[in-house]
């Protein structure tokens, strides 16, 4: 029997994507089996990191960022004002 050529040995991604049945990955099978008997609890979208002493206000971060932006704008304006023409 003749062996197929290199072109026939190549993996055809279009053929694989059009398959009717796609087997889940090993990790997906493992998690499905684990969660079948012990489903995970709800998790918030952005959970607070463990060990944080007190929650930080988002206003502090916003104020610092806006303060830095204003400082850069004022510095650039001062440099432009002092530059000789």
Describe this structure as you would to a colleague.
- The protein is an all-alpha fold and 85 residues long.
- It has helices at residues 6-9, 13-17, 26-37, 58-82.
- The radius of gyration is 30 Å and the shape is elongated.
- The chain starts with 5 loop residues before the first helix and ends with a helix.
- The mean pLDDT is 80.
Task: Please describe the structure with a list of short key phrases separated by commas or semicolons.
single chain; about 55% helix; about 80 residues; mainly alpha; 4 helices
What is the strand and helix layout of this fold?
Layout: H1 6-9, H2 13-17, H3 26-37, H4 58-82
Form type: elongated
Uncertain regions spanning at least 5 consecutive residues? none
Instruction: Please count the beta strands (DSSP E, at least 2 residues each).
Output: 0
In helices, the fraction of residues equals 40-55%
- Count of discrete alpha- or pi-helical segments spanning 4 or more residues: 4
Summarize the structure.
The chain is an all-alpha fold and 85 residues long. The chain has helices spanning 6-9, 13-17, 26-37, 58-82.
């Amino acid at each position: 029997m003749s062996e197929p050529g290199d072109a026939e040995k190549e993996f055809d991604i279009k053929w694989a994507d059009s398959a009717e049945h796609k087997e889940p990955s090993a990790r997906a099978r493992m998690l499905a089996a684990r969660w079948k008997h012990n489903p995970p609890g709800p998790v918030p979208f952005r959970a607070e990191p463990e060990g944080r002493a007190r929650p930080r206000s988002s206003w502090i971060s916003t104020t610092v960022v806006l303060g830095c932006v204003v400082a850069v704008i004022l510095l650039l304006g001062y440099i432009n004002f002092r530059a000789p023409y």
